[in-house]
Design a protein that fits this description.
There is one protein chain. This protein has 162 residues and is mainly beta. The chain has one domain: Nucleoside Triphosphate Pyrophosphohydrolase. The strands form two sheets. Strands 1, 2, 3, 4, 6, 7, 9, 10 and 11 form a nine-stranded mixed sheet that branches. A two-stranded antiparallel sheet has the order 5-8. The two termini are 28 Å apart. The relative contact order is 0.24. Bound molecules: ligand LR5KHM72. The site of ligand LR5KHM72 has 17 residues, from strand 1, strand 4 and strand 7. The ligand Nc1ncnc2c1[nH]c(=O)n2[C@H]1C[C@H](O)[C@@H](COP(=O)(O)OP(=O)(O)OP(=O)(O)O)O1 binds next to strand 1, strand 4 and strand 7.
Amino acid sequence: MQSLQDIDWNTWQGKDPATLTFIIKDEQILLIRKKRGLGAGKINGPGGRLEPGETMLECAIREVQEELCITPIDPIFCGESLFQFTDGYSIHVHTYMAHDFEGTPAETDEAIPLWFPLDGIPYEEMWADDIVWLPEMLKGSQFKGRYLFDGDRMLDHHLDIF
Ligand SMILES: Nc1ncnc2c1[nH]c(=O)n2[C@H]1C[C@H](O)[C@@H](COP(=O)(O)OP(=O)(O)OP(=O)(O)O)O1
């Protein structure tokens, strides 16, 4: 498996459905330094895997509550990212954005909250795909991306924006 063309995307189903949520307020974006799980050590948005019986939106809100002790207000769906790893693992990430929240962001066992200016997002410390789709999301586009990873290394990608 070396390129996206080696995958049948018509029948592809991610092993784990998951969410990512970005809070954007006052020209700043709230990110986390992830302390555990997939991507530990990287900077990312708060998020995680869907639990049985919950909707994607419920998952998005719960993960922000668990990781940062705040509740995003009215998150809106922004796009999807389909990640296939060469070892066979796959994850289908549904991304949300909110412009406000209740509470005060706090460090937890899972994450350290970090605010960045929108023109200073630390892409070099994030997953390699983030620089492909996050700028599009910030411009207000909806997106659907497909990515092939070998561990941390992005081998191939394709992004559709709407
Ligand atoms: N390539 C890439 N770019 C951006 N974001 C991500 C990826 N791959 C990913 O998996 N992610 C995101 C999607 C999810 O929000 C997390 C992965 O979920 P994780 O934190 O491991 O899931 P939890 O359910 O919280 O796991 P536990 O630690 O509680 O077991 O990363």
